[in-house]
């Protein structure tokens, strides 16, 4: 990879101090993101997806504490290349150089993300005037361009609307315009389409994808919807109990998954051809992160668990240059475990479906 | 299928909300469909299409503006007598979208689930009441030890199970599930869907499944109705709708479903559909049979245009 690393998270540990004791929400997370890349982070609620991204923006809750790790972010100030550790910056420095300017975020619910008492134009201008010190007139001109860019018709009329006058999909488009106002290097989308309808969801995803290509920004998608992942992501990172347990290109994760948890996630979602009498579900529930976890956190729910899973935590095993998974069966001495038959059949079906549409089949067959 | 007597017959249902002299919200405009005993009918459409309103009109949270609803042979669209009301309230139940806000936070699970029993006086003593609750808790995959806890002590999926238990304890003939799984994680969604299916097999309860996630609707429903702007634009068996969609709105809706297949999904662009520019006037359309139980709302010309287009 000769591509430039824009974000590099190393061995991140985050603990929440709550009345029920210390909750170890992030337990040694590593993640690299390159310029122009789209990564999707998937996992159940409580797996730590949003916490990680809030840490990357330096907007963590009061009771959260980073116990170790670094988050290095690389950007250009003029022509000078600057590398900072976000965790070491003061709030003031963050607000001046990072938040909204170089890292922007789109939230799940566009209604609560917008200020109901301000016209949407003013909300788009806010960041530009603050960060780029341009005149109001010029900023307004750019805001109009942005609104057109995100596909809002009659932008010159809409710019003076209040959020309540817009539909849900349009509100999310406005949120995207706000996020893009200062030409960020990194866009974090926290479940951007969960609150939207299917038809609008598809449009918003196509929009983000399109903008990403046009502006060459890096995008992090946080989601639990695998359909969304398939549509937008280049790389996928699967999170479980505060750790990334498998990462790879989107094809590797969908067609050659290695971790039993990834198998479960892929199996649980019905596609349009699912005719099985019962949907597959992952048994049990996520581990209690306030207690110490011994061995593999997924072991109690894993039908394929080996004896060692209960004793020692698996390291990241390399499957290919881009594909890594933390599960013991990948060890050279481990017995070979194949993915469940139903999943195998589904993957074959997906490959065949792609073939029927005349799309070049990739080289691997699992 | 047709020979069976429908459990629920909705005929030309209209639900308008009067705002002021100049403005009336026409949420539902002449919708007709049937639900047979033991089947699952899926109602899909975007927000604002009237899905939830139909559910609420059927269970009589609203008084229908026009049209008739008959449930188990009883007309429930007009003023209800006491006995009709009692029958309706115990035989039709609802499961809501957000399991947190639909459970009373200050009651124990036992009291929440037993509320229906309390109202209809369906037990002789406290032991019998508790026994009934324990039984239904068991059925939804919870246990006796959960009965004395409060809703906030449960996870989202467990709360939804409590909501289902509350509906089930009355042995309803019809359950209306209004976006019952939308607020849950993918793997939990699968658990709840499996639970609903197994309950249905056991008790032969009919289910009106309101949702916007089409792949789930396809999986659980035998028949589907597609709603748009208060009109039922297309209805038929799941097979008919998915393999031969006729109405352009249905087509655009189906094209928007995200498929968990990156090879396909990267290259696919969803179809556009804009009612304003499409030149279709829903109010002019009539329900046209296009084979089997497959109906499309269209004028004669429109139907001709759509069917010839699709065969090309």
Describe this structure in words.
The complex is a heterodimer of chains A (about 375) and B (about 300). Helix content of chain A is about 35%, strand content about 25%. Chain A has twelve helices and twelve strands. Chain A has helices at about 50-55, 90-100, 110-115, 120-130, 135-150, 155-160, 170-180, 200-215, 225-230, 250-255, 260-270, 340-355, and strands at about 5-20, 20-35, 40, 65-75, 80-85, 105, 185-190, 220-225, 235-240, 245-250, 315-320, 325. Chain A has an eight-stranded mixed beta sheet with strand order 6-7-8-3-9-10-12-11, sandwiched between helices. The relative contact order of chain A is 0.13. In chain B, the strands form two sheets. Chain B has an eight-stranded mixed beta sheet, sandwiched between helices. The longest helix of chain B is centred in the middle third of the chain and has 18 residues, at about 185-205. The two termini of chain B are about 30 Å apart. The mean pLDDT of chain B is about 90. Classes of the chains: A alpha/beta (about 375), B alpha/beta (about 300). The interface of A and B includes residues 224, 225, 228 and 285 of A.
Ordered list of secondary-structure elements with their pairings:
The complex is a heterodimer of chains A (about 375) and B (about 300).
Chain A: E1 5-18, E2 21-34, E3 38-42, H1 49-57, E4 64-77, E5 80-85, H2 91-98, E6 103-106, H3 110-113, H4 120-132, H5 136-149, H6 155-158, H7 168-180, E7 186-190, H8 198-215, E8 218-223, H9 226-232, E9 235-240, E10 243-249, H10 250-255, H11 260-268, E11 317-318, E12 324-325, H12 341-356
Parallel strand pairs in A: 3-8, 3-9, 6-7, 7-8
Antiparallel strand pairs in A: 1-2, 1-4, 4-5, 9-10, 10-12, 11-12
Helix pairs in contact in A: 4-5, 4-7, 5-7, 7-8
Chain B: E1 8-20, E2 23-35, E3 40-44, H1 51-58, E4 66-71, E5 74-75, H2 82-91, E6 92-95, H3 109-120, H4 126-139, H5 156-168, E7 174-178, H6 186-203, E8 206-210, H7 214-220, E9 223-228, E10 231-237, H8 238-243, H9 248-255, H10 262-265, H11 275-278, E11 286-289, E12 295-298, H12 300-311
Parallel strand pairs in B: 3-8, 3-9, 6-7, 7-8
Antiparallel strand pairs in B: 1-2, 1-4, 4-5, 9-10, 10-12, 11-12
